[in-house]
Amino acid sequence: MNKELPPGLALQKVDERIMTLNVGPQHPGSGHMRIIVQIDGDFIVACDPDPGYVHRGEEKMAEYRNYITNIPHLERPVIHDSCNVLYPYVLGVEELLGIEVPERAKYIRVIASELNRCVYTMYWLAIYGIFLGHSTMFMWPAGDRELLIDLLEKMTGARVTHAHFVPGGVRNDLPPNFEDVCLRQVNYFEKRIKEYAAVFYDNPILIARTANTGVLSREDAIRLGTTGSVLRASGVDYDLRKKEPYDVYDELDFQTNVLKEGDSYARSKIPWLDMMESCRIIRHALQKMPKSGSVRVKLKPNPKGKGLDSVYKRVESGRGSLGCYIVSDGKPEPYRVKLSVGSFRNLIALPYLLKGEKLGNMPSVYWSLNYWPVEADR
Amino acid sequence: MNTATGIIKALNSGIKHLAIKRFTLRYPEEKLKFVGDGYQFDPSTGVGIAGYKGRHMLFHDHCTGCQLCSIACEGVAEAIAMVKVPEEHKQNKKAIMPQIDYGKCVFCGLCVDACPFYALYMTNDYELSSFSKEGLIYTPAQLQVKPFVSQDSEIKITDRGATHG
Ligand code: SF4
Ligand code: SF4
Fold it and tell me: Which of ligand 1's atoms lies nearest the C-alpha of B72?
């Protein structure tokens, strides 16, 4: 091939063994995200995650809406975990405006956010199952998730996007008889997720597929700044509900789950173990919750911040630490809202984990990072 | 664990489910029951009343045309437009009432929180699909109609598993 090239142009050398493959951005195995992988035969030699496909400008939008009307759109990044996404924003606005939240509202918020964490994790688990070709693990979590969605719907009036938390408490009180229904369904839910052990987590085929793939060492997990289940699966005991308790988490009885292996299997097991802790938290919160009382402080129609002020709050969401930085300049609208999300921080580990893996392991390693494309792009 | 016993255990836990009743809700033959008559708001206490956030219901004899609902929705979805109504109400001198475009509404209920005159509530009706975009725009007269809903399935939990009874 000795073709004459126009002056100034040169052909790029191509490695004959390496092939570049675009996975996504409209691929069922990547969500709304593209992963550019370079493969040599069946092995991945380099990987470049390319987020940003579903960037919606949530942060910029927040600058044109007031502190209350920001609520419905700020929960859109992760609609399955909408209470937890809103949580840091609401805590931050409360500090900016100097609002004291009633005790009962704090318990309701903790219950709602734990239910939401389970709903998110079940959805995540369903997709993890189907990524590994395990259709039962797709059907079961998708069905059992209904138990908790039903509870959230009774509580907040919406199945997925709740818009339930507001600065100063929650929008409405619990419906009558909620405690009994909640206890019954959460107990049954816990019984159901324990059954997943036999069919999924103790299944030798799953263990053979995911154990020792995509191993993230403790040092790397800390160095790369990962959070949430990824960090805890690598042996670091770090959970914001314990380390920086917000609302009433310091009064509730639960423990954090830590595994040492740091492989895909451990990363997929931590959220499942966390769900059982969530059930414990919900039961304890239902028991300790004041039986009556106010759930919302009445605010002025257009609350304003006090002059130039800023606040940073973070909570433990289903995907790790989720922070919200709010700057106010004394107007009814915030001057700046910045979301710092767990998904985006965990994504940074992907190129390190996939190097040397087989292409067939890519979906399971990728999804075990608990990554949610829409949240990372905001 | 031994590989063979692990696989048999996994198969066994699936087979056990053959004898269990189906959990699936057979929509639209069955419909899930909601608490109450829909999300409502009490402006005197500033706290809502739990209920499903579905299609709105407008009480013409309470609405004063104050536009607070439409101002609240401006920052959310701009779904509410104030339109002229033919009939006269003595509390509504301007004779304007909200018209809601369900192609835009996100069912957040902030308009219900904004109404100070107990005029706007939400109902259990969620079946709003339409063949045209215009069909999604509900005029004040349409919003006045109480929806007909027959929702009676609830999650029942027995020793043999959960069903939508
Ligand atoms: S429910 Fe929300 S989006 Fe719908 S009309 Fe009311 S304020 Fe607007
Ligand atoms: S529905 Fe309520 S808020 Fe809206 S115009 Fe009528 S009285 Fe005012």
Answer: 7
In a domain, B121, yes or no: yes
B144 HSE (CA, 13 A, CB side): 10
pLDDT tens for residues A163-201? 888 888 888 888 888 888 888 888 888 888 888 888 888
Ligand 2 atom closest to residue B111's alpha carbon, by position in its atom list: 3
Longest pairwise C-alpha distance within chain B:
81
**Among A239, A236, A232, which Cα is nearest to A370's?**
A232
CATH of the domain at B83: 3.30.70.3270
Element of type H or E holding A156: helix A136-156
pTM, two decimals, is 0.88
Cis peptide before B28 (omega within 30 of 0): yes
CA-closest residue to ligand 1 atom 8 = B73
Closest Cα in chain A, distance from residue B87 (Å): 30
Is the Cβ pair B157, A199 closer than 8 Å? no
Mapped onto helix, strand or coil, the DSSP state of residue B47 is strand
Nearest CA in chain A to B113: A171
Q: Are strands B40-42 and B47-49 parallel, antiparallel or unpaired?
A: antiparallel
Q: Establish if B2 belongs to a structural domain.
A: no
pLDDT digits (tens, 9 = 90+) for A78-96: 888 888 888 999 999 888 8
Cα torsion angle, A120, A122, A123, A129, sign: positive
Task: Map residue B151 onto helix, strand or coil.
Answer: coil
Q: Domain for residue B9, yes or no?
A: no
Residue B78: which domain range?
32-149
Interface of B with A (CB under 8 A): 1, 3, 6-7, 9-10, 12-14, 23-25, 32, 34-36, 38-39, 45-53, 72, 74-77, 106-110, 113-114, 122, 155, 157, 162
Asked if residue B1 has pLDDT above 60, the reply is no
Residue A190, helix vs strand vs coil: helix
Cβ contact A106:A168 at 8 Å: no
Walk me through the domains of chain A, giving residue ranges and CATH numbers: 58-342 (1.10.645.10)
- Domain count for chain B: 1
Cis amide prior to B116 (ω within 30 degrees): no
B165 C-beta neighbours (distance < 10 Å), count: 12
Residues sharing a CB contact under 8 Å with residue A340, sequence separation 6 or more, in sequence order: A314, A321, A322, A323, A324, A325
ipTM confidence? 0.84
**Residue B154: inside a domain:** no
